[in-house]
Specification:
522 residues; mainly alpha; three-stranded antiparallel β-sheet; 43% helix; elongated
């Protein structure tokens, strides 16, 4: 290149602008991403699939038989579901317990202690005190009552009701099958379809063989009226399919403690609302809180090393950095020593406060008692803490609730009592009835105080001539909890002689009413 060309090249190079480093593009968010972030969670319109009649598992219905679809079953349309508002999110519908999850899901929930225990405790307490069979009127029927009580023990009625009430808590429905009049283990299909009338013609001597509790997954309603609310069978099945066999409803004592509205019964397979479905939102909160507290305690403190992070970008710096952290981990307990660079490093830890975790966890656990109505000490075994804290008030309310709910199971027990009498005696004695044992019980000291007050009252009434001693004796003999129960009423003891005071004794000795007057005269 000659001198002239070299000079021209140098002049051109000077005219070129110096290169400027490109700016970092930075963190960018697209408009679509912003719209997605601002949008509500994805929702689906609730369809009538959630509320359509329940489809039983294979084998429950006979071959070629489909679940009945009657007029009013279709009345719960998409519009009716959307009008509920809260069911816009299909996940929330199941999560909050607004939709029937199915018996298989409920069976899985029964394996979780938080779902299982409410049903177990309720069934245990409902049947713990049990019933007392007695006779009304003046005729002695103690022999009959003893035979009925023995038959109840043979049939294990108390345990069967406990199992049925427990399943009602798990699934929302349970049924007790009355095996009547079958001469062999092979049940007569034609006989199962007929009404179990409470008469000697239908139930003979020794006809009642056993009681069997049937889970709702094995049964499905066959016939029911869905057109006329004035019909006695409106949304009340007259027969059921039990694994392919048609069984009349009178042979299946259906236990449902929490009925759902008629329009929802086909979706629930004519079951009620289970305790598991009711407590699900509260159990989910508790499980999430319990795990969160556990995770926080597991890693409540984070150790921080302040150092020159630019060294990591050098060749081999990352390996040296990990070795450095490993050296801190080996010596960070109470018996170790951490050595750090005074000029370029700083070592500290950040801890989360744990002071209120116990209260937050306890509140989440206590909230599970709200839908079940169980006192905390029944559900968890934890007694209230604090000055003068007690569970007596909650226990009394719970016992009152149990006493009120006993009426739910009274019709089924009455049916069994009548069938037992037909199977034992060939007739139903209307004077033989039963009553539930009271839930509340008193200790012996309170009973003794009550008996003393009643005895004092009887003494005052007898002295005033209001009642006779025979009437007081009859009352004492009729008290079951009294130590004098069963006294022979006709054998009245002789009344005791009145006590003789000092003045009366002196009068008998001297023959004068006032001995002091006799001394003055003398």
């Amino acid at each position: 290149m000659n001198r002239k060309n070299r000079k021209q090249a140098q002049m051109a190079a000077r005219r070129i602008a110096p290169a400027v480093p490109a700016k970092d593009a930075g963190f960018r968010v697209t408009a679509d991403a912003i719209l997605q972030m601002r949008a509500k969670p994805a929702t689906r319109t609730v369809k009538k699939d959630i509320f359509k009649p329940y489809e039983p598992i294979k084998g429950v219905l006979p071959e070629g038989v489909k679940g009945a679809t009657l007029a009013m079953d279709a009345g719960f349309s998409e519009n009716a579901a959307v009008n509920l508002g809260l069911l816009d999110n299909i996940n929330a519908a199941f999560g909050e317990g607004y939709a029937f999850p199915g018996f298989t899901v409920l069976a899985n929930w029964a394996q979780i202690p938080e779902f299982r225990k409410p049903a177990e405790v309720y069934a245990r307490e409902m049947t713990r005190k049990w019933i007392k069979i007695l006779a009304t009127g003046e005729v002695d029927k103690s022999d009959k009552i003893k035979k009925i009580e023995a038959e109840f023990k043979r049939l294990n009625v108390q345990a069967k009701f406990r199992e049925a009430i427990e399943q009602d808590g798990f699934f929302g429905r349970s049924q007790i099958f009355l095996d009547v009049g079958m001469e062999s283990d092979q049940l007569d299909p034609n006989e199962l379809k007929t009404d179990l009338v409470e008469s000697p013609a239908k139930v003979g001597i020794g006809a009642l063989k056993r009681l069997t509790v049937i889970e709702p997954i094995w049964s499905y309603p066959n016939r029911y009226n869905a057109n006329d609310p004035l019909d006695p069978t409106f949304y009340k099945p007259t027969s059921w399919f039990v694994m392919g066999k048609e069984v009349h409803s009178s042979r299946l004592l259906t236990i449902i403690s929490r009925e759902v509205p008629d329009i929802l019964k086909p979706a629930y397979a004519f079951s009620g609302l289970s305790l598991s479905q009711m407590v699900k939102p509260y159990v989910d909160n508790w499980l999430r809180t319990r795990q969160s507290v556990s995770d926080l305690i597991h890693a409540f403190t984070v150790w921080t090393l302040k150092t020159d992070m630019s060294q990591i970008t050098n060749a081999g710096g990352l390996v040296d950095f990990y070795n450095r952290l490993q050296m801190f981990n080996l010596g960070r307990d109470n018996h170790g020593v951490n050595a750090i660079n005074k000029e370029t490093e700083e070592f500290e830890n950040v801890s989360a406060p744990l002071g209120s975790l116990d209260k937050l966890q306890a509140q989440s656990q206590e909230q599970q008692c709200a839908p079940t109505g169980l006192p905390l000490v029944y559900l968890t075994g934890i007694t209230p803490s604090g000055l003068n804290a007690t569970s007596e008030g909650e226990i009394e309310v719970f016992q009152d609730t149990l006493s009120a709910n006993q009426q739910i199971y009274t019709p089924a027990l009455s049916k069994i009592l009548n069938i037992v009498q037909l199977s034992l005696f060939g007739a139903i004695d209307p004077d033989i009835v039963f009553e539930w044992e009271p839930m509340r019980t008193m200790d012996e000291e309170k009973r003794a105080n009550i008996r003393k007050v009643e005895a004092d009252t009887d003494a005052v009434l007898i002295g005033a001539g209001v009642v006779a001693p025979e009437e007081s004796r009859t009352r004492v003999a009729g008290e079951v909890d009294s130590p004098y129960a069963g006294l022979e009423i006709s054998m009245m003891p002789e009344p005791p002689e009145p006590e003789i005071g000092p003045e009366v004794h002196a009068e008998k000795l001297t023959g004068h009413e006032h001995p002091e007057d006799e001394e003055e005269t003398a």
